[in-house]
Amino acid sequence: MSRRAVVIGAGLAGLLAAAVLSRAGVDEVIVLDRDELPDGPEHRKGLPQGRHAHLLMAAGMDAMEELLPGAGLRARLLAAGAHEIPLTSGMLALTSEGWLRRWRREGPAMFTCSRALLDWVVRTAVREQVPLEIRRATVVGLTGTAARVRGVRVATPGGDTDLDADLVVDASGRGTRVTGWLNGLGLTGVEEQAVDSGLVNASRLYRIPSGAERFPLTIVQANPYLSRPARSAMVMPIEGGRWLVSCGGSRGGEPPADPDGFLRYTLGLPDPIVGRLISGAEPLSDVHLSRSTSNVRRHLERLPHWPEGFTVLGDALATFNPAYGHGMSVAAFGARALSRELARGGPGAPGLGRRVVRSAARAADPAWTLAVSQDARYPGTRGAAPPPLADRALTAYTRRLTRVATGSYAAASVIWSISSLRASPARVFHPTALVAAAAGSPLPPSVDPPLTEGEREILRRLDRTGA
């Protein structure tokens, strides 16, 4: 019997899901998106965070390569100008407890490039590997009943039309209307949770100055333990010989949109290194702001009844403050959950959609915990539950582990494994982490960024601030 699947959304989650469905034997896969997709690595309206820094973590890359076997995704990205940054040695990071040292040892890596480039590379790879159709269309609802979804309703100039499908995947992102769509089928009571720190992102492109091409990715992280608004900044190398510089500030500490204010903001952070670097670099764009940053969880896995023929992935299920760089990886984890469930029973298996939602929700749990536990500490955060009394002991322990990580490779490895999503936050209680925290750092804390002499010379040469 011929089967058709409709995927709502042509972002990472949607395209990876489309690839999975085609490989699983679905005869016709149609991807619907409101945007006209660009022919190259260009920004599109449907990605409100598209101009800001995105980090593809090691576990996210692993999942994408598993979903697109033989596509050479890693090699494609690097050939297109993306950068592979080892967390052990290729990053300068000022944490709440001090600068992390750099180690000449292997460890997890992250990939940096513009979001537009990553989407384009993935979209090209998917189109080359599997047959699918991408249409520009706006979905306004689901068709069917509370027992089974039969397709989608699409807005057209002449009135709404129905597109039948055996399986519908909502991967429409942060702006999904899935709660209303389910209400329209009589499925009510979706629990939604939002934790909003009021974060504003401000980003600007710069040309990488001659000689600074290999300068490390540089992050000044926000400190959640000061009872002050979050304030952070990052200098990230991307394709085309450019730096993407992104600042982030929570409610009361928002970065400005004017170029002079943007520079002042970076110089006013606990360490002025980001401002010193960009003060001598050539700007290539205006400052772009975005306020679409809240953590939102739709607990669809808790609904007592779920329709056959429907599932939800990516930001439509759970979306995170982009400051933590986990959204793209979690989207890949959700598509992998779909792949594994399809392998068990095929596209027509009873209960498929519900099992995928539950698996994808579990895959989102670590990123949700990391994001919400941090954002809840900033003044003015909305929707955060008061921390339990036991949280004080946990906070003291994690702060100690982070402090030890500034001079201990064993402790730093724990932090890197969690931030790269290769391990859950529970890894902080692994015996190796407990031993490292108890032993303390064998090295004294570094007051200054751990730069090589050549990197110090680059920073001095670029600095126009006198800092």
Explain what the structure shows:
The protein is of the alpha+beta class and 467 residues long. The chain has 2 domains: 4-54 and 114-192 and 293-372, FAD/NAD(P)-binding domain (3-Layer(bba) Sandwich), CATH 3.50.50.60; 86-112 and 200-290 and 388-467. The chain has helices at residues 12-23, 58-67, 73-79, 115-129, 178-184, 259-267, 273-278, 327-345, 352-375, 390-405, 409-419, 431-439, 453-462, and strands at residues 4-8, 28-33, 55-56, 83-86, 91-95, 98-99, 109-112, 133-136, 138-144, 149-155, 161-164, 167-170, 192-195, 200-207, 217-220, 231-238, 242-249, 282-283, 288-290, 295-298, 310-312, 318-319. The strands form 5 sheets. Strands 5, 6, 14, 15, 16, 17, 18 and 19 form an 8-stranded mixed sheet that branches. The chain has a 5-stranded parallel sheet with strand order 8-2-1-12-21. It has a 3-stranded antiparallel sheet with strand order 3-7-4. The model has no long low-confidence stretch (mean pLDDT 93). This is FAD-dependent monooxygenase. Residues 5-181 form the FAD-binding domain.
